[in-house]
Amino acid sequence: MKDLFEKIYADKGPLGKWADKAEGYFVFPKLEGPISNRMKFQGKEVITWSINDYLGLANHPEVRKVDAEAGKKYGSAYPMGARMMSGHTDMHEQLQNELAAFVKKEAAYLLNFGYQGMVSTVDALVSKDDVIVYDVDAHACIIDGVRLHAGKRFTYRHNDMESIEKNLMRATKMAEKTGGGILLISEGVFGMRGEQGKLKEIVALKEKYNFRLFVDDAHGFGTLGKTGAGAGEEQGVQDQIDVYFATFAKSLASTGAFIAADQEIIDYLKYNLRSQMFAKSLQMQLVEGALKRLDMLRTMPELKDKLWENVNALQNGLRESGFDIGTTQSCVTPVYLKGSIPEAMALVKDLRENHGIFCSIVVYPVIPKGLILLRLIPTASHTLKDVEETLVAFSAIREKLETGVYKRLTAAMAAEMGV
What we know:
Blueprint: H1 6-10, H2 19-22, E1 31-32, E2 38-41, E3 44-48, H3 61-74, H4 90-102, E4 107-111, H5 114-125, E5 131-135, H6 140-147, E6 152-156, H7 161-178, E7 182-187, H8 199-204, E8 212-216, H9 231-235, E9 243-247, E10 257-261, H10 263-270, H11 274-277, H12 284-299, H13 301-320, E11 333-338, H14 341-354, E12 357-358, E13 360-362, E14 371-376, H15 384-402, H16 405-409, H17 411-417
Parallel strand pairs: 3-12, 5-6, 5-7, 7-8, 8-9
Antiparallel strand pairs: 1-2, 2-3, 4-10, 9-10, 11-14, 13-14
Helix pairs in contact: 3-12, 4-12, 5-6, 13-15, 14-15
């Protein structure tokens, strides 16, 4: 018999093996100061393109005022207990009703955390006889929810309608044998590439196949659609989404999430979501703060307008400068470059130390070997000056990458790391 920890000592995992060289700088970095377009990193001011505060609400004075007053009024504990037992309030119901109306659904239910809530919702929606069909590029929370499923599941190629239909056919045959149903899961916006899920095309397949659609719209809520109701509204199919999910951690700059659907579906879920039934209720300070943020989202369209002014300036500027930003259809702005992991590390260090630009870096195994993905998240807090400085910096680092400067600088590092 082996020691349980033997595998941990031998293999730290695909990302953990870089910890001694990357932690504190490339992963687990410490941004300091008020959440904004410019913050401090290791004592230097940087333009921050890695904060999902899309509408700039995190440090908005009205939001800060409500948060502080709610904290003073309720503290950070109230209400105590799970919703089903002692943690339910009129304000929780009010927020649910307002969220449901905003995303044009009959009912909604609050979730303590987005990740936890997604895992639990997938688990509650299906039984062992049901079949799940989901995008291969789905977020980790969806994948973890699917892992709990005791029945059959099929993945389809990312946003590939031919693959979606092929797997719906396979799922239909399987469900006919088991006597179960089919749940298709997509994202409204895929957070790495910025592409919208093909929701309009997917719901059209309901005419041929009997399935229910569950959409994770974490990045679409508040940013897409005429009113900000998300990718379903943007594509004109919100009413065809059977279960809608969004988190407070992005556009609402807070903690928590919600699901929305027909009343009967929500009534079922609130009695069967284990992560909510057996966990403490979302604290009142967060509930009251979310009500204020939602009201601002509804009544201050200029926030979303400013966001998209910055998104368009950044994305158009990158395209005009010859950068590959893929096929993003959202605020998420990926920049694809070619290079090794050591080159990526040198490039990011140059961006942060010499150009004052802080953005997220993604390398293998998250994306294929030889690719570097720099992921930028524009917000309403950014300025056109931020965009201009970033475009200049990106042109400079691209030139160094293409002329081999980073490769020469990191040759010794590459040999040491075995890359």
